Amino acid sequence: MTKSNSKQFIPAGGQRKNTEKKRFDEPLDEQERDIRDAVENDELKPVPDEEGSKERLVQAARAAAAKNRHISIRLSERDLMLLREKALELGMPYQTLIGSILHQYAEGKIRASF
């Protein structure tokens, strides 16, 4: 058997698709050189509470990957007008504001008072 001399195609700009593996004999890119230098210079420090940090990152990734779902909700005209005004003051779409308020309530960050 002979080795193949075919080179792996890397698109312009040096960006590689996530599914492509880097060959061991390819030169390091800038990020890889930075990591190598940090390891060699003992600049890397252990993460305090590694398991807790890992769990927080996993939860953040899950939240970011969660798909939004469309719902219908009945609001009074006055409430909708007030929410639109608040959203305008904040510089955001009113649906984003409503979603943010509901998310904060669901996470227990704000409480309803009746």
3D architecture notes:
Among the domains are: 27-63, no CATH class; 77-106. By secondary structure, it is mainly α. It is elongated and about 65 Å long. The protein has four helices and no strands. Mean pLDDT is 81; it is low at 1-13. Helix 3 packs across helix 4 (94-106).
Q: How many alpha or pi helices?
A: 4
Low-pLDDT sequence parts: 1-13
Total beta strands: 0
How does the overall form come out from the CA principal axes? elongated
The succession of helices and strands, N to C, reads HHHH
How confident is the prediction overall: mean pLDDT?
81
Largest sheet: none
Radius of gyration: 25 Å
Q: Percent range for helical residues? A: 40-55%
Strand content: under 5%
Distance between the termini: 78 Å
Structural class: mainly alpha
Features:
mainly alpha; 114 residues; single chain; elongated
SSE blueprint and pairings:
Blueprint: H1 30-40, H2 50-65, H3 77-90, H4 94-106
Could you give a quick summary of the protein structure above?
With 114 residues, the protein is mostly helical.
